[in-house]
Design goal:
Structural class: alpha+beta
Number of strands: 24
Strand order of the largest sheet: 2-24-10-1-9-5-8
Number of domains: 2
Bound molecules: zinc ion
Radius of gyration: 22 Å
CATH class of the largest domain: Alpha Beta
Shape: globular
CATH topology of the largest domain: Alkaline Phosphatase, subunit A
C-alpha cells in the first residue's frame, strides 16, 4: 500500500447548518471548529444533492455523481422490478410496515451491494485501485473492495431470524455499531450505528495507534435527530460535538500539528427547514390530496388493483402511477390543486416538466442548448422559469431559491425506473402518508429549496480547493488531494 503524503479526514456533521455554526463559533461555543475556520477556508453555501436525504447525499459525495448515475433515489422509494417499497430507515412505524427483516437487508446489504450502481466508483474503491487505504466510520454508504464477512449483531439476529453471514463490501477499515469496530473499548448503545461519542472514539483510535489511512470518512449522526425536534437554531449539539473534536486535536502535540499532519474537511450533508405548528395545515396528507385514487396502503408489494404508490421523504415525495388506467396528467392536475405543494415535476423522453400548486404556469427543460449555468452545464429551457426561481442574463442561468436546480431535479427524475412524479412542499410544510414520521413544530428536510440544500464546509490543512461549491464536485478533489 502507498503511504499517503497527508491523510484526509472527512467529518460529516449530519444537519449542521451555517447560521447556528457561525453563532456557535462567534460566541465561543465551538473553539475547535473556530480553529479550523481561522486556519482554513470556510464555505457557508455548499450545494447538496437532491432529495436532501442523507443516503442520497452520501452516495453523491462518495461517487461524485447525482442520483441519475448512482441510482440511490432517496431514503424511501418504490422498486418497480421487485414491486415493493425500499426503506433504509424513515421511522419505526414505516419500518414495521415494510417488515423489519427486509429493512435490515436493504439497509446493510442491498443499499451498498445492489442498489448503489456498479457503473460508478466510490472514493474508497477508487483509492484502493490506486494503492491507497481508506476507512469508513458510522456511514451507511461505504462500498469498498474488501469483503467483511460479518454476522448480524445478536439483537438483530433475534429480530430478523437471520443467522447467516453477510458479505459486506467495505473499505479495509470499516466501523459501524455492533457490526464492526476498531477499538476494543468502543461499545454500541444500539446495534444500528454509533452515537457521536463512540464515532469520535473510533476515529481517535486510528489516530492514536498511528493507523490513519489515506482517507477516513466519518459520519456524526446525532445532530439530525436534535434538530428535527428542537428546530435549526439548537447550539447545544454543536457544542457537544466540538468538545469531542477538541479531544481529537489533543491527540496531536498541538492543534497546529493536527492540521500539519492531516487535511481536515468538516461539513454537513443537508440543512433543515423549520416546520409550522398547526398539524392540520402544515402536514400535507397525500392520501387526502389524491382522493379518489386507490392508493397502496402498505409499504409491501402493492396489490394489482392499486393505482398509486407513495414514497414520502419528509418534504419531498415520489408519486408512482402504477395501475394501467392511471392517467399521469390527471394525477398532476389533482396535485396542482394544493397550494402547499411547491414543485411538481416529471420526465418524458429525456425532457423535464415542472408545474406548481402554488404558482401558475409551466416550465420545461432538457440537457444541451444555448443556456449555460453557474456550473458550466448547458440547457434548453422554455416557459415560466420563475417556477424554479431561475433568472437569465445573456444566456447565463442563475439559480435563486433552488441551487443547481436543473441538474439536481432532473437527476432525481432519472434516478430509478418507474412512472413517477416528484413533488416538494413549500417551506414550513411536509408530506405524509399513512405511517410517515412528521415534525410539527420542529424541522424537516428533503426538498430542493436552499434552506436544506445549502450547507457549511470547513477545509483546513491544504492549499488545494474544490472547483465548484457543490457536494457532487468533492470526490475528484479529494482523490486529487491524496493521489497528486
Ligand atoms: Zn433528518
Amino acid at each position: 500500500m502507498t503511504k499517503p503524503k497527508k491523510p484526509v479526514i472527512l467529518l460529516i456533521l449530519d444537519t449542521l447548518m451555517s447560521t447556528p455554526l457561525e453563532e456557535a463559533v462567534q460566541t465561543g461555543y465551538a473553539p475547535a471548529l473556530q480553529f479550523l475556520m481561522e486556519r482554513g477556508r470556510y464555505y457557508p453555501q455548499l450545494v447538496s444533492s437532491f432529495p436532501t436525504m442523507s443516503v442520497t447525499i452520501a452516495s453523491t459525495l462518495l461517487t461524485g455523481t447525482y442520483s441519475n448515475k448512482h441510482h440511490l433515489p432517496a431514503l424511501i422509494w418504490y422498486h418497480q422490478d421487485e414491486n415493493r417499497v425500499v426503506n433504509y430507515g424513515t421511522g419505526i412505524k414505516e419500518i414495521i410496515e415494510t417488515g423489519f427483516s427486509q429493512f435490515v437487508k436493504d439497509m446493510y446489504y442491498e443499499l451498498n451491494n445492489v442498489h448503489l450502481s456498479n457503473e460508478v466508483k466510490t472514493i474508497h474503491e477508487e483509492l484502493t485501485e490506486r494503492g491507497f487505504e481508506s476507512a469508513s466510520i458510522n456511514a451507511f454508504v461505504y462500498r469498498g473492495l474488501y469483503t467483511h464477512d460479518v454476522k448480524l449483531p445478536r439483537s438483530l439476529r433475534v429480530l430478523t431470524g437471520f443467522h447467516g453471514n453477510l458479505p459486506i463490501q467495505a473499505p479495509i477499515y470499516w466501523s459501524l455499531g455492533a457490526f464492526s469496530k476498531f477499538s476494543p473499548f468502543t461499545f454500541p448503545r444500539q446495534p444500528f450505528s454509533w452515537n457521536y461519542k463512540s464515532t469520535f472514539q473510533e476515529l481517535k483510535f486510528l489516530i492514536k495507534k498511528r493507523k490513519l489511512p489515506a482517507f477516513t470518512f466519518c459520519v456524526i449522526q446525532d445532530l439530525d435527530l436534535r434538530v428535527h425536534v428542537k428546530g435549526p437554531m439548537d447550539l447545544t449539539g454543536i457544542r457537544k460535538i466540538d468538545r469531542q473534536l477538541q479531544k481529537l486535536f489533543n491527540q496531536f502535540k498541538s492543534w497546529d500539528e493536527a492540521i500539519e499532519e492531516c487535511t481536515w474537511i468538516v461539513m454537513s450533508d443537508n440543512g433543515q427547514a423549520s416546520m409550522g405548528n398547526n398539524r392540520d395545515h402544515y402536514v400535507i396528507d397525500l392520501r387526502k390530496v389524491l382522493k379518489g385514487y386507490k392508493i397502496s396502503k402498505k409499504n409491501i408489494s402493492p396489490q394489482r388493483k392499486k393505482q398509486i404508490v407513495l414514497a414520502v421523504n419528509q418534504r419531498t415525495a415520489f408519486v408512482y402511477c402504477i395501475g394501467n388506467h392511471v392517467v399521469k396528467d390527471r394525477v398532476i392536475d389533482q396535485l396542482r390543486q394544493d397550494k402547499r405543494i411547491d414543485i411538481i415535476a416529471w420526465e418524458n423522453r429525456d425532457q423535464f416538466h415542472v408545474v406548481s400548486g402554488e404558482k401558475d404556469g409551466a416550465f420545461s427543460f432538457w440537457k444541451g442548448g444555448v443556456y449555460t449555468d453557474e456550473y458550466e452545464q448547458t440547457w434548453t429551457i422554455a416557459g415560466d422559469k420563475g417556477l424554479l426561481d431561475i433568472t437569465l442574463t445573456d444566456n447565463k442561468i442563475y439559480y435563486g431559491d433552488f441551487p443547481d436546480a436543473l441538474a439536481r431535479l432532473s437527476s432525481s427524475l432519472k434516478s430509478h425506473k418507474g412512472n413517477y412524479i416528484v413533488i416538494t412542499a413549500k417551506p414550513g410544510y411536509e408530506f405524509k402518508t399513512k405511517a410517515s414520521p412528521i415534525h410539527v413544530g420542529g424541522a424537516a428536510h428533503g426538498s430542493l429549496h436552499k434552506q436544506e440544500s445549502l450547507v457549511p464546509m470547513i477545509v483546513a490543512g491544504t492549499d488545494l480547493f474544490p472547483k465548484y461549491e457543490r457536494i457532487v464536485d468533492l470526490k475528484s478533489w479529494i482523490v486529487k488531494l491524496i493521489t497528486d
